[in-house]
Amino acid sequence: MYHGTILVDRYRKGEQLDEAYMYSVDKTVEVWRNRLYDISWYMRNLNEFIAREANKEDNCTGRFWEGRFKSQALLDEQAVLSCMMYVDLNPIRAKMAKNLQDSDFTSIQERIQHYKKQSTLENTEQVTQQPKQLMAFGSNANNQTIPFKLLDYLELADWSGRHFDPKKRGAICKTQPQILVELGIETAVWLEAVQNFRRQYSNFAGQPSALRQCAHQHQQSWYRGVG
């Protein structure tokens, strides 16, 4: 996507450069190294490439993306869970799908399809296997897994999606899914989070105690979402 500079190319070929030239090379390399862990730079290039390809396909010009990306640090399990759910329920919230199975381009749709395939196999041990390209659910803290059970997550997603209908506002089932009970999350707080996750938090997401602790570490008085 990018070409190097003349001086850097000469340096890479093994040419001996004087002090002034090497100073310029070092400055250029410093900029490149900073870009390697710059989320803004990465998203700018990713978005620009996709926008150019999409405009080429549609034979048009102009903006393709609605706005800038959102970068938030997830401070605790509640934040991880609600952020995942917010993304997985996007098609239902946008009225592009009526159920989880029809929510195209979501990981939860892929997990459901994979689970159904596995459940038809005679070997019941394979039912717990999950898509290799997605991080697996599991309760083992020593492994790199999402710290929840897959079936609990599917139950919670189904329950949450049913409460997006404005006609059902206020008619919330008294029986919470077990995963909310285990994490001590109130029903109203949960439904607010999965419907308005991006607006509810700013750079950090989590329970009030986690947000206060994070703010204290960064010498701030508070972070959005504490209330």
The helix/strand class is mainly alpha
Provide the residue-averaged pLDDT.
82
The radius of gyration over CA amounts to: 23 Å
Uncertain regions spanning at least 5 consecutive residues? none
SSE succession: HHHEHHHHHHHEH
Separation, N- and C-terminal Cα atoms: 44 Å
- What's the total number of strands? 2
Taking the sheet with the most strands, its summary is: 2 strands, parallel
Count of DSSP-assigned helices: 11
- Percent of residues in beta strands: under 5%
What overall form do the CA principal axes indicate? extended
Q: How many domains comprise the coordinates? A: 2
**Roughly what percent helix?**
40-55%
Widest sheet, order of strands: 1-2
Explain what you see.
The protein is mainly α and 227 residues long. Helix content is 50%, strand content 2%. It folds into 2 domains: 6-35, no CATH class; 73-217, no CATH class. The longest helix has 20 residues, at 39-58. The mean pLDDT is 82.
Secondary structure: elements and pairs:
Elements lengths: L5 H7 L6 H17 L3 H20 L14 E2 L2 H12 L1 H4 L13 H13 L30 H12 L16 H6 L3 H9 L1 H4 L3 E2 L2 H10 L10
Parallel strand pairs: 1-2
List keywords for this structure.
227 residues, 50% helix
Offer a concise description of the structure.
With 227 residues, this protein is mainly α.
